[in-house]
């Protein structure tokens, strides 16, 4: 059923999707890039800055896209990234 | 009225071939402009003819008895009847021959009515001469006819239905109820199709899903129906009665134990616009398209699911599912099915009005399509049945429907989409039912309320105050503040310009062929009309048969139609398929190709041009192999073969060359030898006859099943025999009865033109024309047009071409 879906769905506001908050422990990162590569929502990108280990750690490109799947945590070999659920009670 | 002419041939012929010729008067239809007795007398002088008679009505019972008696008494072993078109009475005379013990393939017809008397009404002399030629040609072919036996193939008593919309469901249920095993294959995760999206149906205003859902669940649990959703047909091999089909069944990643509770979807972090609601509501990556879906099992859209390939890290749905039905290890399956018949019910797409920028669809939020309207007005839809403006979620005080959006226009599709008028009338009544104060305008070109109960509904809408304005708006303009819309156009009935302000515009969008129809077309070797819908075998008499035997069409795949017509056609298709399966066997007409093994080099040219994949090449033996049951008899292979290794039964090279010889025996330099395909050009010539379109009498038409049968040597032979001009005529490109065989005709003619140029011959002497069965006028004018060519050809040129063609050939 190929359909042109261009409108904002009428229930878009009502649908609650968990929002994630990404925390990066920059100095643990060795710059393998797995989190950037594998994030299904393309939340991360490489930063310009250098950390203590002399590599570019990731930075958050668009946190609103994070769906809290925690894949970044799972693939990080250095325990340098984790996500927590955003408290959206006061609106996100 | 019978006048028998005993001929001297009896003793002089070899005794093997004994032809009886019957020249029919057809009352005055033939006798009015052809001297039938003279023709019969002439026929008696042709070699092999042992008996020649003229008779008032050869097709009458007495006429047939006469022929039967003669076959028995005079030991006739070939019969030629010169009368009407073989497309009309060939079956009649063939049956008569069979009843007298003569193989029906030993019968030949000369068409002296449609192709002679009716088109040369005022020139009896020329018409009589032409009739003599036509009889001579028929006798020449008859002398070379061979008896044939029709082969019989078994029919597997199982059917495949492609597409699970209302047409597919109906066809599957009918076949299943008859007792045949049915495989119902649907591409989407649920059956139901377009009808499931619609709120109410016209003209009865029934709730669409309420009448469809029971049928869907019947199909889902029918013991004879095996339902495969999320599945696509990927390969079809074989032929009538014996198709081998491969179906790719994509995994749902949810097992059948799913209770459709929806707990998984609630936790799924991915949301996208829902296709079923035309993007007006959201769905998750794990979802069910709609509440009544069959099967009810949820499905994971792996294109959207965060879990790519084999890495499963988002397990929210897995955790939420109490019954543990989510299984990401499911793999795609390929089902291999053996079926005897196939019903194509692949449905249609909806026109995308964004192309018509003047109407502002996708620019103005309050311009919606009729399909979006159906979802909005549906109680189960995204707005719970409230017709709301997407801009402010308010019910509009006035709405306008614009008709023929994408239909009947150069800017969209040229055809009428059939359902939009009634759909709009139904929609306007639905609005009046819920919000009687709403002002409703319908801007239209013509209102087509042609069906049972349609006019009543139209009248009702008018009575309820729906305003019908003739003249489509030229432009829709949005008022920035209110998001209301201005429609500007001309009322052609009142001859004045209108400027109407409404809260919402509903575009009554047309139906278009499925954008992926080419896949099924290729797999099943179907044809499509210029509109893009699948073509039927005959528009009047075989409207649900596809040109490929054993394949039937139902629903919008064949043409735009409403639910009732789709269901009717589906039941018809099921009945047609049942006939084949009930008989359990089918005979194939013996007009098929035959390999002459010793000549075959296994070059594979024939396999390349065969539109039916009926030829394969045994590489070890270096020989072609024919699947006779898959052969439809176009003869393209035979024309393509450079080694004379393929004989077309009943249309052999010798027979066609014999006809050319007979046609060119006298005054060839003034004649046009024409080759017409049975289905289009020959039928077009018949149509010219029926319509009494007069054209010059110097054309001699030779019938072949397809223009693809036209080997270059036939054209060359005609020139070598001194013909002034040659006409090759077939179906329009894309309309070929044999899928695409006429593209080969075109290639061959182009090669011939080049060759003629090289030899220094006037290439205008060879004409190619595409003439369909209704274009008698085109044939007549082509023959007229060719007169100047015939007249301009000098005798030196003819002598030159005779020599050159003979030398080159």
Please provide a written account of the structure.
The complex is a heterodimer of chains A (92) and B (809). Chain A has helices at 34-38, 71-75, and strands at 20-24, 44-46, 58-60, 81-85. Chain A is of the alpha+beta class and 92 residues long. Chain A has one domain (20-85): Alpha-Beta Plaits. Chain A is elongated. Chain B has 809 residues and is an alpha/beta fold. Helices cover 31% and strands 23% of the residues of chain B. Chain B contains 23 helices and 39 strands. In chain B, helix 3 (61-73) packs across helix 4 (86-99) and helix 7 (166-178) packs across helix 8. Chain B starts with a strand and ends with a helix.
Summarize the structure.
The complex is a heterodimer of chains A (92) and B (809). Helix content of chain A is 11%, strand content 17%. By secondary structure, chain A is of the alpha+beta class.
Secondary-structure topology with pairs:
The complex is a heterodimer of chains A (92) and B (809).
Chain A: E1 20-24, H1 34-38, E2 44-46, E3 58-60, H2 71-75, E4 81-85
Chain B: E1 3-6, H1 9-12, E2 19-24, H2 36-43, E3 49-55, H3 61-73, E4 78-83, H4 86-99, E5 107-111, H5 113-117, H6 124-143, E6 151-154, E7 158-162, H7 166-178, E8 181-185, E9 200-201, E10 206-207, H8 208-221, E11 225-228, E12 231-239, E13 242-249, H9 263-267, E14 271-273, E15 282-284, E16 286-287, E17 299-300, H10 316-320, E18 333-339, E19 341-344, E20 348-350, E21 367-369, H11 370-377, E22 398-405, H12 420-434, E23 439-444, H13 454-463, E24 467-470, E25 473-478, E26 485-491, E27 496-502, E28 504-509, E29 511-513, H14 517-524, E30 551-553, H15 563-583, E31 585-588, E32 593-595, H16 605-609, E33 615-618, E34 623-626, H17 636-640, E35 646-648, H18 653-663, E36 672-677, H19 681-690, E37 699-704, H20 712-720, E38 725-730, H21 741-759, E39 766-770, H22 776-792, H23 795-808
Largest interface: A-B, 23 and 32 residues
User: Treating each run of at least 4 consecutive H or I residues as one helix, how many helices of chain A?
Assistant: 2
The overall average pLDDT of chain A, rounded, is 88
Q: What is the CATH architecture descriptor of chain A?
A: 2-Layer Sandwich
Main beta sheet strand tally, sense and closure of chain B: 5 strands, mixed
Residues in helices of chain B, as a percent range: 25-40%
Q: How many domains would you count in the coordinates of chain A?
A: 1
Task: Give the tally of β-strands of chain B.
Answer: 39
- The CATH architecture of the largest domain in chain B would be 3-Layer(bba) Sandwich
Helix fraction bin of chain A: 10-25%
Which radius of gyration of chain A do the C-alpha atoms yield? 16 Å
Could you give the order of strands across the largest sheet of chain B?
1-3-2-4-5
Number of domains of chain B: 6
């Amino acid at each position: 059923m190929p359909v042109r879906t261009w409108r904002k769905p009428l229930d878009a506001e009502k649908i609650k999707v968990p929002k994630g908050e990404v925390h990066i422990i920059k100095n643990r990162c060795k710059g393998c890039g797995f989190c950037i590569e594998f994030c299904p929502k393309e939340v991360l990108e490489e930063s310009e800055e250098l950390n203590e280990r002399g590599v570019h750690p990731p930075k958050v490109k668009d946190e609103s896209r994070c769906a809290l799947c925690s894949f970044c945590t799972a693939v990080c070999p250095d325990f340098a990234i984790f996500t927590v659920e955003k408290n959206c009670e006061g609106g996100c | 009225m019978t006048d028998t002419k005993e001929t001297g041939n009896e003793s002089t012929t070899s005794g093997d071939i004994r032809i009886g010729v019957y020249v029919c008067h057809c009352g005055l239809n033939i006798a009015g402009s052809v001297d039938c007795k003279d023709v019969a007398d002439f026929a008696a002088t042709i070699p092999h003819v042992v008996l020649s008679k003229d008779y008032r009505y050869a097709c009458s019972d007495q006429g047939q008895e006469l022929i039967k008696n003669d076959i028995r008494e005079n030991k006739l072993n070939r019969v030629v009847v010169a009368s009407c078109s073989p497309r009309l009475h060939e079956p009649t005379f063939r049956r008569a021959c069979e009843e007298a013990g003569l193989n029906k393939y030993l019968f030949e017809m000369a068409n002296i009515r449609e192709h002679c008397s009716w088109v040369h009404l005022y020139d009896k002399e020329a018409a009589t001469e032409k009739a003599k030629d036509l009889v001579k040609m028929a006798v020449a072919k008859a002398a070379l006819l061979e008896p044939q036996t029709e082969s019989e193939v078994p029919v597997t008593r199982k059917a495949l239905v492609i597409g699970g919309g209302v047409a597919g469901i109906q066809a599957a249920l009918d076949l299943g109820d008859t007792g045949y095993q049915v495989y119902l294959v649907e591409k989407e995760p649920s059956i139901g199709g377009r009808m499931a999206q619609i709120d109410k149906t016209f003209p009865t205003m029934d709730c669409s899903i309420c009448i469809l859902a029971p049928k869907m669940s019947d199909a889902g649990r029918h013991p004879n129906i095996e339902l495969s959703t999320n599945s696509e047909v990927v390969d079809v091999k074989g032929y009538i009665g014996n198709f081998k089909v491969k179906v790719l069944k994509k995994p749902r990643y949810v097992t059948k134990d799913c209770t459709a509770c929806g707990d998984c979807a609630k936790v799924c972090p991915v949301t996208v616009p829902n296709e079923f609601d035309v993007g007006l509501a959201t769905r998750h990556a794990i979802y069910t398209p709609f509440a009544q879906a069959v099967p009810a099992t949820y499905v994971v859209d792996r294109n959207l699911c965060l879990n790519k390939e084999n890495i499963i890290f988002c397990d929210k749905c897995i955790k939420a599912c109490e019954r543990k039905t989510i299984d990401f290890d499911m793999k795609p399956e390929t089902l291999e099915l053996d079926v005897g018949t196939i019903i194509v019910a692949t449905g249609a797409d909806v026109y995308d009005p964004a192309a018509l920028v003047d109407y502002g669809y996708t620019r103005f939020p309050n311009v919606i399509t009729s399909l979006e309207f159906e979802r909005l007005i549906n109680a189960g839809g995204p707005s719970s049945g409230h017709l709301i403006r997407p801009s402010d979620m308010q019910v509009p005080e006035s709405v306008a429907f614009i008709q023929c959006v994408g239909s009947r226009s150069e800017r969209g599709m040229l055809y009428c989409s059939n359902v939009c008028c009634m759909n709009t009338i139904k929609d306007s009544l639905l609005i009046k039912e819920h919000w009687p104060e709403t002002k409703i305008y319908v801007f239209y070109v013509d209102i087509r309320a042609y069906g049972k109960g349609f006019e009543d509904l139209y009248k009702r809408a008018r009575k309820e105050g729906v305003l019908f304005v003739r003249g489509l708006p030229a432009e829709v303009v949005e008022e920035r503040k209110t998001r209301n819309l201005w429609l500007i156009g001309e009322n052609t009935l009142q001859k004045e310009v209108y400027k109407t302000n409404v809260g919402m515009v509903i575009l009554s969008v047309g139906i278009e062929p499925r954008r992926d129809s080419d896949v099924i077309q290729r797999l099943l070797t179907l044809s499509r009309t210029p509109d893009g819908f699948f073509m039927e075998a005959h528009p009047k008499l075989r409207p649900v048969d596809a040109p490929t035997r054993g394949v039937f069409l139902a629903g919008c795949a064949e043409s735009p139609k409403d639910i009732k017509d789709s269901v009717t056609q589906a039941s018809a298709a099921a009945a047609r398929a049942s006939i084949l399966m009930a008989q359990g066997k089918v005979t194939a007409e013996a007009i098929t190709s035959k390999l002459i093994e010793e000549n075959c080099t296994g070059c594979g040219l024939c396999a390349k041009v065969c539109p039916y994949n009926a030829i394969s090449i045994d590489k070890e033996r270096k020989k072609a192999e024919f699947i006779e049951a898959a052969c439809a008899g176009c003869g393209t292979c035979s024309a393509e073969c450079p080694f004379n290794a393929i004989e077309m039964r009943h249309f052999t090279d010798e027979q066609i060359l014999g006809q050319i010889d007979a046609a060119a025996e006298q005054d060839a330099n003034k004649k046009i030898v024409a080759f017409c395909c049975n289905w289009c050009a020959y039928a077009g010539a018949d149509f010219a006859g029926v319509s009494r379109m007069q054209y010059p009498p110097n054309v001699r038409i030779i019938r072949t099943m397809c223009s693809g049968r036209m080997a270059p040597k036939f054209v060359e032979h005609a020139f070598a025999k001194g013909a002034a001009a040659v006409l090759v005529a077939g179906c329009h490109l894309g309309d070929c009865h044999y899928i695409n065989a006429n593209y080969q005709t075109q290639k061959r003619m182009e090669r011939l033109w080049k060759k003629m140029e090289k030899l220094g011959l006037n290439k205008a002497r060879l004409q190619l024309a595409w003439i369909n069965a209704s274009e008698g006028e085109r044939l007549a004018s082509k023959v007229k047009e060719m007169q100047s060519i015939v007249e301009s050809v000098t005798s030196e040129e003819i002598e030159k071409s005779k020599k050159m063609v003979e030398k080159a050939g």
